[in-house]
Amino acid sequence: MTERVDSAKLCAMRALFVPLFALMLSACDGGLWNNPYPVDDEGKSILYTAFTGRPKHLDPVQAYSENEYEFLAQIYAPPLQYHYLERPYQLVPLAASAMPVVHYLDKDRRPLPDTVSAEKIAFSVYEIRIKPNMRYQPHPAFARDSEGKPEYDHLTQSDLRDIHALSDFPHTGTRTVTAADYVYQIKRLAHPQLHLPIFGVMSEYIVGLKDYAVTLQDALKKEPKTFLDLNAYPLPGVEAVDELTYRITINGKYPQFAYWLAMPFFVPMPHEAERFYAQAGMRERNLTLDWWPVGSGPYYLAENDPNRRMVLSRNPYYDSETYPAKGEAGDAQAGLLADAGKPLPLIDKVVFSLEKESILTGTSSCRAISMRPASAPTVSTRLCR
To answer: pTM of the full predicted structure?
Structure first.
């Protein structure tokens, strides 16, 4: 009796398994049946990766951690960057058309020769010329109406009723990056409503930055409900010379300052973006630079859901950089120069999914990977299993 029952069960299992197996085979004709990615994305230039920590700040003034720089390095374009392949690490131009020219001055602002001893140098002047025709990502802050005026410059609560993300604005625009945008961002380092993690250090070097912070604080106290337009307050140590050239004056001689110019603190910031986000009702909807950055780099943040996923999309106006043509010995044989000279970025979209790290009591096996969809400094992410 037991044999008959088992035999009957076996026949029933076979009857169920055969059509199921046929269904699985038919699914294989259309692609992997267990593919975790959307079918519509098949064949597209998309990098799927992970992030393990929610970024707290995406405003380049306030950001100062690896999980934040992982995004900012793709969105913003500082003057300098680190060469992607050459070691030891080497600074090279990114938004700058060439490496900065440095001039030395004495305490009376008179020029000094490059070979003068450091103790005689009262000021170092860094002159930076940026590449022409660089453009910002599409953004509603740059949208213009039929008369050429900012379209979203005077939004009301009624206008914002159905706005919850940048994609809810029907129109966007762009404009070219100017030297004044780099000056504006450096001024923001002293903004009384922002927290610069290393303000103490920077204010010791950038001429006038410490006093500038006091000036802005006083201005905000006088008119606390008025937009603080930094263009109305000059910073002695930073000036735009022309459309593409600006100067930064620092105290004494400090060669390490060049490395600061590869950090998000010194990226360009269009004043239109800050004015756009300063409007009433924006912050309540997470419409801020801390949530939706505005950059001129190879990507822009198209989706921000830090509890689930974040998406970077190609900046359609980015065309100022190509993949490096040289590297270390052996890089060509390893295939790392196969894309030499190609315009960047090489990938259209980067999809980050949240992968929370668990704290293990035993020994964990970790590996370091490099996410490099564009030409910003390499970002290392630790993935533990």
So the answer is: 0.85
